[in-house]
Structures are given as C-alpha cells and as structure tokens.
Amino acid sequence: MSFNNLDTLYRQVIMDHYKNPRNRGQLEGDHTTVELNNPTCGDRIDLQLKVEDGIVEDAKFEGEGCSISMSSASMMTQVVIGKNVEDAVKISHMFSEMMLGNDPDTEDFKVEELGDIQALQGVSKFPARIKCATLAWKAMEQGVDKEQSE
C-alpha cells in the first residue's frame, strides 16, 4: 500500500473513532475517576476505570477536544479493557515512545498487534499535537496507579 493510501486510511480510522467513539459514557458502580485537561488547547478527559484483581474490567470516558485527543481516548479504552494493569501500562509506555518518534515495539507488544492505535503514528511529526494524543493514556496510568494505591 502506498504512503498516500496508508495516510488516508489512518485519517479515516482517526475520524471514525472521533465521530463514533468507543466506550464513551459513564461507568456504573465502584470505579476510579481521573480528570485531566490540556490547558494549551482545551482538551479535557474524564476517564473512569474499573479494575478488579489487577485486570482493567471496564473503561469509559467523557470529554471534549480535538479529533486526535478524543479518538486516542476511544482507541485506548478498546486496548486496555481486559488487560492486566501491568500490560496496560506497558502499552501506554509503548504509545508514548511512538509519540516521541521512537520505535514503539517491545518484546511484549508490537504496534501492529494493537489495532487502530497505529493510525496515530503520524502525530509524532506534529509536536504540538502529542499532548492531545497522550492525554487519555496519562489519565489511564494515573487511574491504575490510584487503584493500586487504594
């Protein structure tokens, strides 16, 4: 597939998650909530996580922001639900490396194994947008830290 076709596909994936976000809404019952915002651009996320026995059982978010921020939140929730906390954090670190333009692949995970997340690789070329893409991931890391410390 040519670069232009791949770029178009990635844009379509990002816009699909933006227009049809997965796991948007509120969790019922006991859960941890993390609210973060990016004052530079106005992105805001309210992430709710349900962690039981070290597994991210469910994740939902609400918020406002650009297509990169909201689609990244949608993708993140899809990836971490069902993962143990350790793997969720490893994937988050991998995503951060990808946003810095570094090779994101680890022994445990390859970016192509993580579905739609690879569509965000191009964000690394736009430093001002990296905070948009990583906001939900930082919220998830704070949420699982909060869960483990309780």
Automatic annotation (TrEMBL):
- Single GO MF descriptor: iron ion binding
Domain NIF system FeS cluster assembly NifU N-terminal per the UniProt entry, residue ranges: 10-132
Annotated Pfam families? NifU_N (PF01592)
Residue spans making up a coiled coil are none
Which BP terms in the Gene Ontology apply to this protein?
A: iron-sulfur cluster assembly
Q: Which PANTHER family match?
A: IRON-SULFUR CLUSTER ASSEMBLY ENZYME NIFU HOMOLOG
Q: Which NCBIfam families match?
A: SUF_scaf_2 (TIGR01994)
Query: Which family, according to the similarity comment?
Result: Belongs to the NifU family.
- Name assigned to this protein: SUF system NifU family Fe-S cluster assembly protein
